[in-house]
Amino acid sequence: MDAAEDRRLLVQEDGDHQPLLLPSLQDAGLYTGDGSVDIKGRPATRRTTGNWRACFFILGNECCERLAYYGIAKNLVTYLKVKLHQGNLEAARNVTTWTGTCYLTPLIGAILADSYWGKYWTIAVFSSVYFIGLAVLTLSASVPALQPPSCLGSVCPEASLLQNGAFFLGLYMVALGTGGIKPCVSSFGADQFDDSDPTERVKQGSFFNWFYFCINTGAFVSGTVIVWIQDNSGWGIGFAIPTVCMALAIASFFSASNIYRFQKPGGSPLTRVCQVVVAAFCKWHVEVPHDASLLYEVDGQNSAIEGSRKLEHTSELEFLDKAAIISAADAKSDLFANPWRVCTVTQVEELKILVRMFPVWATTIIFSAVYAQNSIFIEQGMVLDKRVGSFNIPPASLSTFDVISVMIWIPFYDRVLIPIARKFTGREKGFSDLQRIGIGLVLSIVAVACAALVELKRLEIARSEDLIHENVAVPMSILWQIPQYFFAGAAEVFTAIGQLEFFYDQAPDAMRSLCAAFALITVSAGSYLSSILLTLVSYLTTQGGDPGWIPDNLNEGHLDRFFWLIAGISFVNFLVYIGCAMRYKYKNV
Q1: How many CA atoms lie within 13 A of 209 on its CB side?
Q2: Helices (DSSP H) in 429-556: which residue ranges?
Q3: 3-state helix, strand, coil in the chain (%, to 5)
Q4: In this structure, are strands 19-21 and 11-13 parallel, antiparallel, or unpaired?
Q5: CB contact at 8 A, 36 and 120
Q6: Under DSSP, is residue 313 helix (H, G, I), strand (E, B) or coil?
Q7: N or C: which end of the chain has fewer CB within 10 A?
Q8: Contact present, 377 and 473 (Cβ < 8 Å)
C-alpha cells in the first residue's frame, strides 16, 4: 500500500466543518505518493497540482529575485565608495561581511521552514522582509537627506549615523530576506514533482538545471544592464529596478498558490538529532540486537515525523541504533513515549544520513574556494591587454563569460548530454548526483590550470619585454582568459547543480530545506578558506624581503604558482572525494 492509499483512511474537515472523506483505494493513483497536500491540506492530485505548471511560476520568481539580489551585490562596493565615501579597505570589508551574512542566514530560513512554517510560508515572510529592505535601500539612494554631501575636490564628508543606519538597515534586511528564502525556493520547486513516480523524478532532475539557468539569467542582466544604469543614470533608479523585480518575484510566486504541492513541516530537525544522540548515549552499555526488526518503529506507511516517509534501517553507525532499542525499563514505564529516551528507526536514520553526507559536503568546500578565485582572475586581467579592436574591455566584464558558459552548458547538458549518458549508464538522469559533482570537480581543476598557463605565458612576455619591474599591462590579449571562465562555468553546471540535487534527493523528507542551507554554506566556507589561503601565501612568500607570489605589481610575482597550488589542493581534494563517493550509501525510503 503506497502513501496515497494510506492517506485515504484519513478524514478531514472543510471550511464548513463537514466531514470530507479522502480518496478511495481505487482512486489512489490520481494522488501523489510522497505525502504532499494542496493549499487546503487535502491530498495533492497529480493532474491539477505541481509539475511544470507550478514550476514555471517558481522559476520566474527565482529569476526576478536573483536579478534583484545581484542588482545590489554586483555594484555594492562602488556605491559604498562613491556615495557613502568609504575607503577601499572599509568598503571591501563591508561587502565581504554582507556577502558572508547572505550565505549564513539560510540556516534561519531552513530551520523555520522544516520545523514550523513550511517552505511556502517561510518564502512568503522572508520575501516581504526582502522587499521592504530593497525599498529602504531605494529611499536611501534617492532622498538627499539620507546621503552625505558630494565630495569637494579630495575632501569627502563622512556619512552621518542616520545615513549609514538607513542604508545598512535596508542592506541587512535584504541579507535576511535572501537568506531566508534561498534554501526554500529550490526545495519547494523540487517538491512539485513526486519522487515516488519515475517519470516525475526525471523532471525533477531537469528542474534543478533550469533553476540554475534562471539564477544566471538574473545575474547576467544585473551585471550588464542594471550596473550600467546605476553608473550612468543614477543610484535611485538603479536600486528601484531591483525593488520592482522583487515585487514581480513575489507576484509570480503567489499567483500559483492553488496549484502548488506542499510538504508538511516535521518539527525541529535539530531537536530530533539531539534526541537521537542523547538516547544513544543513555544506552551506551546496551548491546544492539542482530535483528533490526526489534528496533522501535511505528506501524503504518508514514513515520512518526509529520510529512516524512519511513527510512529503511542501515547497518552503518551501529552505535546510533542504541537510541531505537526498547529496554525492559522503557517497556514498563512511561519512558517508552519519551523521544529523548526511545527514538524511531526513521529518526535514527535521519542522523545517519547527515553523517554520511558530511564528507561529500566537506569536499565541495574546496570547489567553492576555487570559484572564489574570481577576484584573482580579475586582477590577472588588469595586467593583460584589454584592447579588442576599438573597444577597451573592463577585466570584471570578462567574468560574464562564466555566466554565458553556464547558460550554454545547461541546455546542452539537459537536452543532449543526459540522453546520451542515459543510453550508456541506464540511469534516469544520465549521471548519478555524485558522478555529476565529480565531473565538475575535475573541470574546476582544468579552469585553474588554464589560469596558471595563461599566467606563465604572461610572465614570459613580461620578462621578454623587460616589464618585470613596471606595474603595467603586458602585450597579451585579455581574451586568453576566456577558457578559464568557460571551464569555471562548466564546473558550476556539474558540481553546483549536482550538489543542489544531491542534498535534496538524499536529505530526509523533513530536513530538505536544512540540507539545502548546508549546500549554500559551502559558498561562504569556500570564501573564508580562500581568504585564509591568500593570507598564508602572502605571509610565507614575502619572507626575507621577497615580493611574494601576489604582490601589488603582478609582473614581479608568481601568480602562476598560486594557481598551481589551488589546482594541487583541488586534485588531492578530488581523490578524497572519490573515496567518499565510492563509500557513500544512498538512502532507502
Answers
A1: 22
A2: 433-464, 482-491, 497-506, 512-541
A3: 70, 5, 25
A4: antiparallel
A5: no
A6: coil
A7: N
A8: no
With cut-offs at 50, 70 and 90, classify the pLDDT of residue 18: very low
Cell numbers 558630494: residue: 150
Are 305 and 347 spatial neighbours (Cβ–Cβ below 8 Å)?
yes
Q: Is 183 exposed, middle or buried (0-12, 13-18, 19+ CB in 10 A)?
A: buried
**Terminal C-alpha separation, the chain:** 14
Q: How far is CA 299 from CA 133, 302, 306, in A?
A: 48, 8, 14
- Rounded Cα–Cα distance for residues 267 and 259 (Å): 25
Q: Which residues pair with 388 in a beta bridge?
A: 391
CB-based contact 367:444 (threshold 8 Å): yes
13 strand-pairing partners = 19
| Cα dist from 447 to 353, 373, 412, 549, 563, whole Å | 32, 10, 19, 19, 10
DSSP 375: H
| Percent of the chain with pLDDT strictly greater than 70 | 93
Q: Determine whether 148 is exposed, middle or buried from the number of CB atoms within 10 Å of its CB (0-12, 13-18, 19+).
A: middle
**Using an 8 Å Cβ cutoff, are 179 and 105 in contact?**
yes
Q: Are 80 and 92 in contact (CB under 8 A)?
A: no
The answer to whether residues 505 and 457 touch, using CB atoms and an 8 Å cutoff, is no
Residue 27: band (very low, low, confident or very high) from pLDDT cuts 50, 70, 90: low
18 contacts: CB under 8 Å, gap ≥ 6: none
Residue 395 has pLDDT above 80, yes or no: no
- Angle at CA of residue 221, ends 439 and 122, nearest 5°: 75
Q: What angle do CA 111, 116, 122 make, to 5 degrees?
A: 70
Q: 3-state DSSP call for residue 309?
A: strand
Q: Which residues pair with 31 in a beta bridge?
A: 45
Q: Among 310-314, 357-361, 556-560, which range has the highest average pLDDT?
A: 357-361
Of the candidates 77, 174, 95, 169, the one whose C-alpha atom is nearest the C-alpha of residue 131 is 174
Amino acid 96 reads T
387: three-class secondary structure by DSSP: strand
Q: What does each C-alpha distance from 345 to 17, 33, 180, 266, 267 come to in angstroms? A: 36, 21, 31, 16, 17
Q: Which pLDDT does position 334 carry in this prediction?
A: 63
Cα separations in angstroms, 573 against 363, 365, 568, 569: 6, 10, 8, 6
Closest CA to 240 of 159, 167, 136: 136
- Amino acid identity of residue 462, one-letter, is A
- The torsion defined by the Cα of 522, 527, 531 and 536, in degrees rounded to 10, comes to 30
Strands 387-388 and 391-392: antiparallel
Angle CA 363–366–370, to nearest 5: 150
What is the Cα–Cα distance from 113 to 186, expressed in whole angstroms? 13
β-bridge partners, 92: none
pLDDT at 250 over 90: yes
Local confidence band at 121 (pLDDT 50, 70, 90 cut-offs): very high
Phi, psi at 20, each rounded to 5°:
-120, 115
* Cα-trace Rg, the chain: 26
Sign of CA dihedral 60, 61, 64, 66: negative
Residue 279 — very low, low, confident or very high, per pLDDT cuts 50/70/90? very high
- Are the CB atoms for 384 and 559 separated by under 8 Å? no
